[in-house]
Structure to design on (191 residues):
C-alpha cells in the first residue's frame, strides 16, 4: 500500500536519502580534512618502499613474506615477542618446504628474510612506513584502536589497509584523520 510496483516507481519506495546515506560515512571526514587545509596527495605505487604488517598470526606473517618476496622492506609487528618468534619459525619452515619442492630458490628466500624485521614496537615500526596492512583479530573495536594509533604515528602519506574480510574499511577509517587513505586489502589463506 502506498508504493507502486512498477520499475519506475520502485525508487520512491526507498527512504528519501538512502543513496546519500550510503556514501556519506566514508567521505564526511575526508571532506572535513580537505576543508581544514590538509593537502590531498595521490598515492603512487612507486613511492611505496616500506610496508608494516600489524599482527604476526597466520595471515600477518604470510602477508609480510609475500611483500618481502616482492622486494619491499617489511616490518612485522606484534604485541608479544613469543608470537613474533613463532611467526618467524613458521615462515622459515614454510619457505624451506617451498625450496625443497622447487617452488622458489633459496637465494630468493634469503633475500626476502633479509628485507624483514620483527618487532613489538608499533610506534617505531609505523614511523617509517609507506603502507600499513593490519592483520589482527576480527574485532571492530580492536581494529579501530589500532587504526587510531597508526594515524598518530604513521607518516601522513602512509596508506592504512585492513586485511579484514568481514569489516568494511569505512567502519574503521573514521577512527583516523585520513579516511581517504584507508582501505580493505584482503589476502586469502595461504597468502
Amino acid at each position: 500500500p502506498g508504493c507502486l510496483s512498477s520499475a519506475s516507481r520502485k525508487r520512491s519506495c526507498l527512504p528519501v536519502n538512502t543513496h546519500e546515506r550510503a556514501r556519506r560515512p566514508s567521505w564526511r571526514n575526508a571532506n572535513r580534512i580537505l576543508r581544514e587545509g590538509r593537502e590531498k596527495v595521490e598515492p603512487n605505487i612507486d613511492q611505496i618502499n616500506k610496508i608494516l604488517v600489524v599482527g604476526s598470526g597466520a595471515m600477518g606473517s604470510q602477508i609480510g613474506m609475500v611483500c618481502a618476496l616482492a622486494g619491499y622492506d617489511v616490518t612485522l609487528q606484534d604485541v608479544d615477542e613469543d608470537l613474533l618468534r613463532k611467526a618467524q619459525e613458521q615462515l622459515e619452515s614454510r619457505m624451506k618446504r617451498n625450496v625443497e619442492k622447487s617452488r622458489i630458490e633459496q637465494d630468493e628466500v634469503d633475500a626476502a628474510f633479509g628485507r624483514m624485521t620483527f618487532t613489538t614496537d608499533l610506534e617505531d615500526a609505523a614511523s617509517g612506513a609507506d603502507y600499513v596492512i593490519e592483520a589482527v583479530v576480527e574485532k571492530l573495536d580492536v581494529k579501530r584502536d589500532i587504526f587510531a594509533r597508526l594515524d598518530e604515528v604513521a607518516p601522513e602519506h602512509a596508506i592504512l589497509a585492513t586485511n579484514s574480510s568481514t569489516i568494511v574499511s569505512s567502519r574503521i577509517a573514521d577512527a583516523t584523520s585520513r579516511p581517504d587513505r584507508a582501505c580493505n586489502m584482503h589476502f586469502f589463506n595461504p597468502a
Remarks:
- The two ends are 51 Å apart (CA to CA).
- Helices lie at 18-35, 58-69, 81-100, 106-114, 122-127, 140-153, 170-173.
- Confidence is low (pLDDT under 50) at residues 1-35.
- The beta strands are 50-54, 73-77, 116-119, 131-134, 159-162, 182-184.
